[in-house]
Amino acid sequence: MVVHLRDQLQTLIKGKISAYEPMSRHTTWRIGGPADLFLQPEDWKDIEKALNFANDQEIPVTIIGGGSNLLIDDKGIRGLVIKTTGLNKLEFFNDKVKVGAGMGLPLLAIKSGQNGLTGLEFAASIPGTVGGAVLMNAGAHGGAMEQIVEQVTVMDRLGKIHTFKKEELDFKYRSSKLKGLPYIVLEVLIKLSWGEREDILKKISSHKMFRNERQPLKYPNAGSVFKNPPGDSAGRLIEQVGAKGWQVGKAQVSEQHANFIVNLGGATSKDILNLMDLIQKAVKKEYGVTLEPEIIFLGG
Ligand SMILES: Cc1cc2nc3c(=O)[nH]c(=O)nc-3n(C[C@H](O)[C@H](O)[C@H](O)COP(=O)(O)OP(=O)(O)OC[C@H]3O[C@@H](n4cnc5c(N)ncnc54)[C@H](O)[C@@H]3O)c2cc1C
Fold first, then answer.
1. β-strand 70-72 against 296-298: which pairing, if any?
2. ipTM confidence
3. pLDDT attached to residue 1
4. Quick one: what percent of the chain has pLDDT higher than 90?
5. How many structural domains are present in the chain?
6. Does the Cβ of 69 fall within 6 Å of ligand 1?
């Protein structure tokens, strides 16, 4: 049945479709079972056609970008998964950039810096796509997407295009209005400022060095697992309850950064969830604080 649907859909669109694609190949945690159907669209038309097909066949649709903020169930994802990384057009005009949602944020930050545009230095070490970063209002080093996004173009599940101005996106800490809505981010208009090329590139390098020293980047991970509670740091609380080094199966609380859980090799989604549960219970018991996940759970 799935293979038949794949063959049918492939006749309609240019991008590659696969059946039973292991999602562990598409998440930075290297965790996640198979997606029934997996599409990497080449353009907006591909997405529109795939959505129409999914609507006709009553198949659920899930969108992913770089998979850098995702925990995907070991059982995988039923229906169609659309990965946006093929939407990577980039156009600079003056101090603005119009960029496809699938463009990698680090590459965009570097290209902007090379063009003498400042404002994206904070994003150079956030390993996701522009679309995922807008949805999550990704941020670091005092910067966040809400400071530079001017307008976002999205497609709804019926294939209709809408645009949202920044003011309509209701950006909050690691969140935006788009997070709860069934839209696919297609393109983002970003406003930067003119700066000194060398200074910008130096700042990017120093952010990278800072992270290389503090984050457990040699193991698969998904960045910070929990959001910082108001006025505090999730990493500090997790460290204070002595959780560094705690392990469930092959998932371990990083010794280097307590808000990172690393995959030591072969960790399952269940390992991660059980470890998260232990951490949440310990922090609640000791400090009365409920840690809220920053990562997004998909599938099952
Ligand atoms: C080593 C490491 C360091 C990190 N550091 C930071 C950091 O400093 N700051 C920070 O904020 N985050 C950080 N992250 C987390 C992550 O990189 C960001 O949240 C990133 O913005 C997620 O983008 P993505 O493309 O990978 O999205 P995904 O993880 O693929 O998806 C995240 C969510 O966005 C949705 N989505 C993705 N693309 C689209 C689209 N085009 N349209 C509609 N919905 C979409 C997905 O459905 C999902 O709900 C880090 C992660 C890692 C692994």
1. parallel
2. 0.99
3. 86
4. 99
5. 3
6. yes
